[in-house]
Specification:
The protein contains 4 helices and no strands. The protein is mostly helical. The longest helix has 25 residues.
Length: 103
Amino acid sequence: MDFGGKAPEITNGRLAMLGFIAALGAELATGESVFAQLQDAPIFIPATFALFIVASIIPMNKNKKAESVGPLTPDAELVNGRAAMIGFAALLAIEAIKGDALF
């Protein structure tokens, strides 16, 4: 696997979807910013991301074809991943400017 093609974008998109939803949910539940959440779980969050990276790379290395399940298509995953990347970056930027949690 190289840095070209869809593999890095798929992996980064999956991590962005995981991070955005987890950060937003934890922020709504606790009122802590993303930066505070990272300080509270310095091992658990990177370990979860590492697990998702490995789980994304293994099927790609086995040349498994991406399958569609109803509305969940490979193209929809790319679009949702891109939206999550923008959303997560925006969340970080807003919290950095505001100096506190978004909600």
